[in-house]
Amino acid sequence: MRAAVLHETGQEKLEVLDDVEAVGFGPGKVRLRIRATGLCHSDVSAMSGVFPQPAPFVPGHEGAGEVVDVGDGVTGLSVGDRVLVCWLPACGACPSCKRGQSQLCLAGFMNAGTPNFRRPGGDVFGFAGTGTFTEEVVVGAGGAVPIPDDVPFEIAALIGCGVTTGLGAAINTAKVEAGSSVAVIGCGGVGISAIQGARVRGAAQIVAVDPVASRREAALRFGATEAVAPDGLADAGQRITGGEGFDYVFEVVGKSATARTAYENTRRGGTLCVVGAGAMDDNFQLNMFELFFDEKRILPSMYGGGDVLRSYERTIALWRAGRIDLESMITHRVRLDGVNDALDQMRTGESLRTCIEL
What pTM did the predictor assign? Predict the structure, then answer.
C-alpha cells in the first residue's frame, strides 16, 4: 500500500512509499479506502514539531473515502459506504460529551500514541490518530461518518476539518450577529471558511487580512467586503468602525503576535475568537487592567466549537443551498506523488486547499 511518510520531526519533505500496511483492524474498527484528502496547515505544524506527534508518521486528517471492511460490533456502517474521516470522534460518555461539548472529548487524541501503520522497518503512526495521506487507513467506527451520495469525496474531505472549523468558529463559537463588523486575520482554508460563516450569519462588513495578495483576492470572492495586508488593518478599522474596533475579530494564524493584533483591533466589549492552533511555548500576554477594563470576550474555538456531526450536516445543507462555496476553495489538485509540491504551495500561501486524489 502507498503512503506518504515523514521519517523524522522537522523534515520538510515526505517520502511516498509502497511498503506501508494499515494495522489495528478488529472489533469496533473500520478499514477505509481513502479517495481524497485535503492538506491542512495542521499537517505542516505536526511535521515541523509545533504540534506534538510521534514519528515516523503519515500526515493527513482531512479525508474521505469508502468502507472496505467492518469489524465486529460496528453498527450503522457497511462495506461500500461513502464516509468522511472525523479526526476527533466523540465517545459520548466522558464529562465533556455529557455536558454537550463533544468537541472537547479527548478519546480521539488517545489514538495518536497507537501506531496506525507498519513498515518492514517498524511501526508508523498516523497524524491525530488517522493519517489520510495513504490509500487505506483503519479508524474507530466513530471516525467514519457516512456522507450522502451527492457529496463528492473532495468536498467531504474539506468538511472533515477546515470548513467545519472555520464555519463553526463564526456560527457556533462567536455567534456573529447580523449587521456586525468582522475582521478575519489569516485567510487560508480555515480563514476563508470563517469569512463564509460570518457572511451566512449576516455580518455587514467583513475585512480579510492576509499578507498574500492571492489570498486577499480570494477572500473577496468568498464574501469579504474588503481585503487588506496586515499593515492596512488599522486603517480599515478606523474607516469602518471609527477607530472603536471590530465587533468580532477571528485569529486564524495560531501566533501570539497575531492574537495580540486581533485583541487590539477588537472593540471594547467585542469578541476575539481564537481559531488558529499554535505552539505550546508561544504565550499570549495581557495585562490585568486591560483584561478587566476592556471587557473583551476571548473565545477559543476547537474544531468549530460544537457537535461536529451536527456541524457536518449543517455544512452540507448550506452547500446544497448555495449559501457557501466549497468547490472553489480547492485551488490545486495533485496525486500522492505530488504531495511535496502541495506542501510548498501551502507554505508560500499559493493554495487555499489542495486536494490529494488517491
Answer: 0.96
